[in-house]
Structure formats: structure tokens, C-alpha cells
Amino acid sequence: MPLDGAAASPVFMTAKITCAGAADQFVRIGAASATDGGWAPLTGSLTVPSCPLSGLIVYFEGPPAGVNEYIDDTTASFIHARGHRMPRRACAEICTGGSPVA
Q1: Structural domain harbouring 84
Q2: Do 17 and 51 fall into the same domain?
Q3: Tens digits of per-residue pLDDT, 11-28?
């Protein structure tokens, strides 16, 4: 994750989790120190709460205004609580209560 406009800055991956009838939760998933000298990996994990989930947004934040951060090659894996990888459709149905994600 290189920067354009600053030599270095911390960057973060954050999730906004919305459970029906509850206040939004903001969860830090990962952090890295980005520089203008090359790509830096930013990794993390997120445990989705067992609630009636009405929204889940993952976003990147960190550098101050006027500094560009470049993101490339993102991957998300859905892992069942028992440690097994889940097909995207299966997870979407479990996580959204039956509404498949295309």
C-alpha cells in the first residue's frame, strides 16, 4: 500500500458492523505503516457477531487529507466458526439471514 504525498503514514482497515436494533460497531481489522517507497501488506481478521446483521462495510483509512493511498489485490475469505472455509454464497446466506450476495 504505497503513498503519494507523504513519506510515511499509518493506515488502517476497519469494519462498520450494523446489527438490527443496535448501535453501529466500528472494529479495527488491521493496521500497517505505509510509505512512499513501496507496497506494504495490511492483513487482519474479523469475527462477525451472532446478531441479526443488517450491514457490514469494510473500508481503509489513515493518511491525512491530500495524501493518496493505493490499494491493490484485496482478498476476503469466509471461515466458519469451526475453522472451515465457506463458499461465498453459503456465507452470504448465513451472514445475511438468507439473502444471497451475487
Answers
A1: 74-102
A2: yes
A3: 888 989 998 899 999 999
Domain count, the chain: 2
62 and 16 part of one domain:
yes
Are residue 37 and residue 54 in the same domain, yes or no?
A: yes
Q: Which pLDDT band, with edges at 50, 70 and 90, does 94 fall under?
A: very low
Residue 6 burial class via C-beta count within 10 angstroms: exposed 0-12, middle 13-18, buried 19 and up? middle
Q: Are residue 96 and residue 46 in the same domain, yes or no?
A: no
Residues in the chain, overall count: 102
Cα–Cα dist 26/10, whole Å: 18
Q: Whole-prediction pTM value?
A: 0.68
Residue 46 · residue 27 · CB < 8 Å: yes
